[in-house]
Amino acid sequence: MTAESLYEAAILGVSLLRREGWAEQIAPGTQLEFQVRQPATTHCVTVAQLRRWCDGVAISPDETLKKRKLRATLA
């Protein structure tokens, strides 16, 4: 799975876990760990951080649409 940002990757990952039946509800304080392959790096974010990012200010109309779609995916 590829994404343009850490937050987008995290939201898509949460969506995949739900869709495949691995998780139904994930608490806002749950820490999620994501690994980037090139270069290999690990990042940790919480569900609450993902929600704040989705609700944050977008710098372009395209980013506004992307955040709106990702917010719906995370809901």
Explain what the structure shows:
This protein is of the alpha+beta class and 75 residues long. The protein contains three helices and two strands, in the order H-E-E-H-H. Strands 1-2 form a two-stranded antiparallel sheet. A hairpin with a 4-residue loop joins strand 1 (31-36) and strand 2. Helix 1 (6-19) packs parallel to helix 3.
Brief write-up:
The chain has 75 residues and is of the alpha+beta class.
What is the string of helix and strand elements? HEEHH
Q: State the end-to-end distance.
A: 20 Å
Strand order of the largest sheet: 1-2
Query: Mean pLDDT across all residues, rounded?
Result: 87
Taken from the alpha-carbon principal axes, the silhouette is globular
Strand content: 15-25%
Radius of gyration: 12 Å
Give a short account of the largest sheet.
Answer: 2 strands, antiparallel
> Count of helices?
3
Structural class designation = alpha+beta
Name the helicity range. Answer: 40-55%
Uncertain ranges: none
How many strand units?
2
Features:
globular; 75 residues; alpha+beta; 2 strands
Helix-strand layout with pairing:
Layout: H1 6-19, E1 31-36, E2 41-46, H2 47-55, H3 61-74
Helix pairs in contact: 1-2, 1-3, 2-3
